[in-house]
Automatic annotation (TrEMBL), chains A, B, C, D:
The lineage of its organism: Bacteria, Bacillati, Actinomycetota, Actinomycetes, Micrococcales. It comes from the Bacteria. Residues 1-20 are annotated as: Disordered. It holds the Pfam family DUF4916. This is ADP-ribose pyrophosphatase. Residues 1-13 have a biased composition (Basic and acidic residues).
């Protein structure tokens, strides 16, 4: 939920969507609904063998790793938002297995004020429904992402990787690994 | 999520909160974040023995039953919103046991257009995190509610009771009962 | 969890597995660990469009419908037991998507005494971890099943279909539909 | 799930329960059903502020920390087993809030062979349903436990504390903290 992670998504808004002014006001007055997806590779028994992280460069030139993340739009179902953001970040042939149940494994509350929760987004108060999403197809990072790296659950929890994730997404990733029984 | 359920909550908004115009615009352009709580009585083993439903009269003079439901405010944690709405609807000594985990049992997506999902709210697109909340204290319906009725899980799933719940809350109640193993 | 549902599974036990006497004794003294799988077809957004039910004839000549269900063996992971039972009942090319997380949507406790819980198994005390499992391949009923019928969530909750399910599996199926947001 | 953790529980078995020989045979041929409870203190909003760990001395004289854990008996409901083990380990006035839903936050599979899963029990194959259980009363360690220590979530995830937990319970504790949003 860094600026870089969200900026490229702005232009796709259809006509009638919020103007920059209106979105600015909403961000200062309402919690915004997001989804976070943790893309994973699973084996035949459903066991997670790898987790996919997007590699980006922040405006400050720092490398950062990120989950698939984005806003739920007006009149869009959560499951459709999940699919849309995964296709936008991983490409059209990632073949994601969107969960049958809307029950997220956790709810990440990104506050503009650091320290209220472990998640932080300086731009806004975003509440994100978080899902683990197996993908079985070809994943190609899109738009602003330089690369998509597949890490083992052990590598994903590594201190260095965690440092490269911002806003609490490193924690969210480890919560996902805990949920699938792969927290190191 | 009827008008009656939400109207009395408007006055409590602090200064700086959305103006009626702004909330009107937000409702037409963004999904709003809500919580739904299903208040229950449990026995010593945690088994649900009764579910609490608020009884209200709609502006049209029709009796309706409702769950505890309301918006999550800017810079408010989901668990604090749950506590606030339960205290507002059930009184200050209900002694709710707010869940330790933010994982809801389901996510109810109320669309302004009927039929997109089983939930419907003509005013807005509301996405609600739904929790079962045991309450062990004295519950006294507040404000616009006429009564709080404690029903057995079987009574709560009864056709007549279901008819008295609007916007899909009857379904949400049955999903809650399914989650706790008490769907008849 | 009828006799017919389980009998064909007995012969497959490897050498060293429990003798008929030993299993008989275990059944009278220990809760046995089972898995229940609700096979579903999902659309691109993960929404459940159909649920698969096995059609069998009981020894008494009565038609019955059943979920995929079976015991977890010694030194077998729950996810491997899920895969094994799905392949045994739906064939080798069903392509099940075994859940990445071991968290079941519910735990069904089949008691030998009716009425303790909504689930009943006259032979034993079985505790079953229940999962919704999307299958994307060709499903062919195996062994003792006459057919595999794909029903819509609405049809699956129909009174007549529910009557054809025994031991509480009709309820378990409706709980699964509640979990995926498709309870009628 | 060390020997010490379970031994004191043997004498309480009612007449008709498994003989030592029979339990020995069951342990070598069947997965046994267990429950694990993570006792926590929560604040008014349900946020976990402390986690309770039992302090024991192993037969080898080593200090170890443990969760509340024990077997589900024949004809016993999972929620009753949870209550029984909590009362046995924390005393009769711990006032546990047994979860309304049977859905565990995870399933811990303790294998007799190390490395199959992250959990290990040299005596047996035990499959444990794991729950976070808020306790609001007075907790007094019973029987073989020397003490019950209340740690913050941060302290509980500390490397030294983790080292004092055996069989994978340190991981299970961190999974519990991930589930309640308190993984450091």
């Amino acid at each position: 939920m860094t600026d870089t992670a969200d900026f490229p998504r702005e232009p796709e808004r259809p006509a009638g969507w919020l103007s920059p002014d209106a979105i600015q006001q909403a961000r200062a007055t309402l919690p915004l609904l997001y989804v976070d997806a943790v893309p994973v590779r699973v084996d035949e028994s459903g066991d997670v063998v790898a987790v996919g992280l997007l590699l980006r460069v922040t405006p400050e030139g720092v490398m950062s790793r990120a989950l698939v993340s984005g806003r739920v739009m007006y009149h869009e179902r959560v499951r459709d938002a999940l699919l849309r953001h995964i296709e936008k970040d991983l490409g059209p042939v990632a073949l994601p297995q969107i969960p049958a149940s809307p029950q997220p494994f956790t709810v990440a509350e990104y506050f503009p004020t650091p320290g209220v929760t472990p998640y932080h987004d300086p731009r806004q108060h975003a509440v994100s429904l978080a899902y683990v999403v197996p993908v079985s197809g070809d994943c190609r990072p899109q738009q602003d992402a330089l690369d998509l790296a597949w890490l083992t659950p052990e590598q994903a929890a590594d201190h260095q990787v965690q440092l490269e994730m911002t806003g609490g997404q490193g924690l969210l990733l480890r919560q996902a690994m805990a949920h699938v029984g792969r927290l190191p």
